[in-house]
Write a structure and sequence with these properties.
The chain is an alpha+beta fold. The chain folds into 3 domains: 108 residues, PH-domain like (Roll); 26 residues, no CATH class; 232 residues, no CATH class. It is 52% helix and 17% strand. A hairpin with a 5-residue loop joins β5 and β6. α6 crosses α12, α9 packs across α14 and α10 packs across α12. The protein is elongated and about 70 Å long. 41% of the residues are buried. The structure holds zinc ion. Zinc ion binds next to α9 and α13.
Amino acid sequence: MNPAAFHGRLFGAGVSEAGAAAHAWWEGSRLAVQAGDAIHHADGASLQVEAAGFNLRQLKLSWNGADGSYNFFVEAEEDFSRLLSGAPESMKEAFAGAQSRRRSMGRRFSAAVAVYGAVISLPLLLLLAFLLNIGHLVDWVAEKIPVHYEDRIGDLVLAQTRAQMKLIDSGPAYEAVQAIGKRLTAGSAYRYRWFIADRKDINAFAAPGGVIVVHAGLIAQTAQAEELAGVLAHEVAHVEQRHSLKNLMKTAGLSVLLSLVLGDWSGTALGNAAGKLTELKFSRDAETDADREGLRRLVDAGIAPHPMADFFSKLSSKESGMMPSMLATHPASAEREERLRSMIAALPAKQYAPLPFNWAEIKTSLNLPTARRQSLLAD
Ligand SMILES: [Zn+2]
């Protein structure tokens, strides 16, 4: 084998989902990667390089080949030096940048995580996951995943969601959701992305990394902007407390853990799990926590909290023919509503300025059948 070759793991078209051991070398400005008998070539100009992997201890080279996209992960120090020394001049800067990011992230990581991600072999990791309580393991891992990673999971979920439903990302209702969302998330480490799904059923959900989707059908059922703010605050709390991330990891199970460890972001495992996000149910404790934290955010943002409870009570007493999908994921029991009302009652008295929207106009702009029916009745 070429003495200048460096080792790594290749993911992409025609390669097993778990990746394949591969070695690579430079041919001038071109990268050649060999996995088994197949040799893949990547033009230097089309190569992307970044720090990657569960604890950012790897360098990821990615490119688009004729038959699909490829990711090649390099992890060992001696492989880095061979990779860097042979790299074309034009790419040295990109490599140096990724390398220093990799090192600084690595330093910030706790030794425990480094051991988990780099030293423990994958079969052992799998065995451990089965032997230990998987739920606790997931919680432990989830607490240690940097926001940067969650952000990328959010991107994946967003792509899945777009494939499943039409997302509205302009117009007065969208602007209102954005404006309210901004107030609720001031100072957050997450990069929030707000969307309205063009769907009639009543639902809202939060994906890891700050992707929040609210159905137009939910907005149609709100009597005022503050009711929507209550729902959004609750969803924000799910993101901030990493409920969405933990849920996704638990549902997808080990395959997602594995793709996180391997840094395989194109992984279908995560993508498949992301597609189920609208059906994910949180535990009762998580719901109570999200109500409490959501309420705190509302009040901090200077938004009146009572309408949040009003909206949840409306949900539980709904007699419309439309089954609110939200009830499947957010059981709106009388007990929960009571708890929310007593949390609100315990808050210090405060004056809240109404949110500055013409709510009736905003709802009409969504042009939903429900909204139309209501206006016909009003006529
Ligand atoms: Zn919830």
